[in-house]
Amino acid sequence: xxxxxxxxxxxxxxxxxxxxxxxxxxxxxxxxxxxxxxxxxxxxxxxxxxxxxxxxxxxxxxxxxxxxxxxxxxxxxxxxxxxxxxxxxxxxxxxxxxxxxxxxxxxxxxxxxxxxxxxxxxxxxxxxxxxxxxxxxxxxxxxxxxxxxxxxxxxxxxxxxxxxxxxxxxxxxxxxxxxxxxxxxxxxxxxxxxxxxx
Length: 198
Prior knowledge:
Helices cover 34% and strands 25% of the residues. It contains seven helices and ten strands. α5 (69-75) links the parallel β1 and β2. Residues 1-9, 13-33, 179-183 and 193-198 have low confidence and may be disordered.
């Protein structure tokens, strides 16, 4: 196609040829240059909101297992646990405390990364919205309720886990019950009370 434009040497044709060449260079550079862990780690002032901006153009592609972070980043495609695991790897290096939370709903499990200092969670489904994080108080129940609401579903259980060297290790789980009240259960005498709430 560029050969056709070369036959016509008018001023407008040169501009079109230049534009096509630049577009071709930009496309080939974009295809070859994926986001890397090192680039994320070098990013100054990396907040949860800024972190999410890097992923706004990533495509959804389900994987039964968590992808290696380098594969997820270089292919710019993956699913919720790929995204959450990368957030849980990178944000603690910037001073944030993160928690991986899996929310089970009928027919689907969704993974998010809760960030304590920001009182929000990063959700792969929110990466392309203006507000890329969702606020939550940090309890498993609150995160589960809000994630389920975003799916227009009810949640059955929620688990916090850690992911290290390709292995998920369960930390805590809560189940949705009809008897649950929003008030935490308090056990013991006033001077030695234990509050039970995930």
